[in-house]
Specification:
alpha/beta, 3 domains, nine-stranded mixed β-sheet, two-stranded parallel ribbon
Length: 410
């Protein structure tokens, strides 16, 4: 483990430097189009949401995180202005039905998107051109990064057109119902025939839709641009002073088929707190692996199991008797152990070693009667003759006793 210590220290130092660099580096500008009230990024809508109280003084500002159907269903009396900013809108059938009902009874809706598709805009007879890139924006009164627009009403038309930031493109209306629609804003092309409509009012029942194809004009970067606040103030002057319902549900990452879909890791790395927690977790895992591996690699001492010294003892005692030549003592002890075995394992008394005893031993041990007669006959002869034994006699007795132990059934 010591040979790898230097490399481990270098690895830990490198990870620490990476974490510190991530913590203290200047975060890059997030150019994602969120259109959300909580985002201060260029294409967020934080500034506009903060100004709603000034644009609609004294009116309630409600934030809606549900779908249009969930928010408007069941209430047939509520009116107000529904605010929705996005890069494109494609509302579902149930959403369309509830929104049309809301507008028809006197409500209003301000919808800003580059592309309007789906059943709502089919019902209104609305069609947009699709997004033109900044490279051709100059054809519509722009200078490459902006598109010039102005209001159609002589009373609201500015002496100088409003430059709207259009580096990411813009679109305009190519189809709308002229009987129920009022053109409110167009591009500032010199020729009247070349002007493109970017803001209209569509009357529906007792209310109206206000549709704009320049949603970026109402984002943070749009409002902070040249005359951006002035342009937005004129646009919102068309809206009635009523309760505002700000939609936070239909945003780029939430619309079916829309962009903004990111992996969970990219989302974690895009948030400073999550990013710091992620790198801290990685560093903790590395440290755990390093110190955990060190503990597992420590030498484990070999513990010898306890030895059974019974056989050593028997061998030693046997060698002692053999060297002294006292074969009779060894035989007496073997006979004593054998009779003890018969008493404890076969449950037979051993005070008389007669023929009946031998028969009962044969029945309980399962050994042949003739082998038992040979064994106990040899024992009886040895007990009757009180004399010394030879090594051959002891060996014969030992063989018979070992046969008994190895073949008995108990």
């Amino acid at each position: 483990m010591k040979s790898y210590r230097l490399y481990i220290l270098i690895l830990c130092a490198a990870l620490a430097l990476v974490v510190l660099a991530e913590v203290f580096r200047t975060p890059p500008v997030n150019w994602n189009e969120s259109f959300s009230r909580s985002d201060k990024v260029p294409y967020g809508a934080w500034i506009l949401y903060q100004q709603l109280e000034n644009l609609f003084p004294g009116e309630e500002i409600e934030v809606n995180d549900e779908t249009i159907y969930q928010r408007l269903a069941g209430d047939t009396t509520e009116v107000g202005t529904y605010f929705l900013l996005n890069d494109r809108l494609d509302l579902s059938g149930p959403d369309t039905k509830q929104l049309l009902s809301f507008i028809s009874r006197g409500g209003h809706a301000f919808l800003a998107a580059e592309n309007f598709t789906g059943p709502l805009f089919d019902t209104l007879g609305i069609e947009t051109s699709g997004t033109f890139s900044f490279m051709i924006a100059s054809e519509f009164g722009g200078d490459g990064d902006t598109v010039q627009v102005n209001f159609a009403s002589p009373a609201l038309r500015a002496e100088e057109p409003y430059p709207l930031y259009a580096r990411n493109g813009f679109s305009y209306f190519v189809l709308f119902n002229e009987d129920s629609s009022v053109v409110l804003e167009t591009t500032a092309s010199k020729s009247l025939s070349e002007r493109k409509v970017t803001f209209i009012k569509v009357v529906w029942g007792e209310g109206a839709f206000f549709l704009s194809t320049t949603p970026r004009a109402f984002t943070n970067i749009g409002l902070l641009g040249s005359r951006g606040i002035e342009h937005a103030a004129v646009v919102f002057s068309y809206l009635p002073s009523k309760k505002v319902i700000w939609d936070e549900s239909y945003k780029p990452e939430d619309i079916a088929g829309g962009g903004g879909s990111e992996s969970s890791l990219r989302y974690i790395l895009s948030r400073e707190a999550f990013r710091l927690a992620w790198y801290s977790l990685l560093l903790g895992i590395v440290l755990f692996i390093v110190f955990g591996a060190r503990r597992r690699q420590r030498i484990i001492p070999v513990v010898e199991p306890p030895r059974n010294t019974t056989l050593d003892f028997v061998e030693t005692v046997g060698r002692l008797y053999h060297q002294s030549g006292d074969f009779r003592s060894v035989a007496d002890k073997q006979i004593t152990y054998l009779l003890e075995y018969v008493r404890t394992h076969l449950n037979l008394p051993t005070h008389r070693l007669d023929g009946k005893f031998i028969e009962r031993v044969s029945e309980r041990s399962g050994l042949p009667l003739d082998r038992l007669q040979q064994l106990f006959g040899r024992i009886e002869q040895m007990q009757a003759k009180r004399r010394e034994m030879s090594a051959n006699e002891l060996l014969s007795l030992n063989n018979d006793i070992e046969y008994f132990y190895q073949n008995t059934e108990r």
